[in-house]
Design a protein that fits this description.
The protein has a single domain, classed as Glutaredoxin, CATH 3.40.30. Helix 2 crosses helix 3. The chain is an alpha+beta fold.
Amino acid sequence: MKSILTNSLQNSITYSAYRTLVSQLLAEGKSTGPNQSEDLTNYSKLNDRRMQRLDKTIKIDEETSTFIQNIDQQQTWLVITEGWCGDAAQNVPVINKLAELNAKINLRLVLRDENLALMDQFLTNGGRSIPKLIALDSDHSVLFTWGPRPSTATQMVVDYKNEHGALDAAFKQDLQVWYNKDKGQTLQADFKALLETVLQNA
């Protein structure tokens, strides 16, 4: 596991480089990842616009901001993502805003389909769901993981699957509406709770 994490960190990029990569690929009519299709490119275009908007509009609440600024432990937040993933587009910009609050937090991103050995260590219910964040200490030990969705959205998915058996286009639309209304607040609360647990056990 440590060697997989180390290799993935060596392949990782900054949030800024990730945003540039997604945009450059779109200029070539491509999405991230080895599989290319018109649908994936269209999702990436939509997500690129979402990320641009969120980069400008996301606000971190004062309580969470103060809490993160007071963390004095070196951490690396390694996020597994892809440009075509709608959940990643809604959540990774918020994670970036949180990481920017503290110089001790180093945010790094890797593409899922180029790092399947890492992805397969951090499955969600047996699936390669993204985004997935792995928080590491200075020795590359795992402090906590998060993903692929904020807690409220996760419950929405569970409830819908229980009732309908699978997620469909109508649900995905409802989920995007929820994200737009939530404005990253649930993710902030989730992260604060996870970090509080980590610091209490340190």
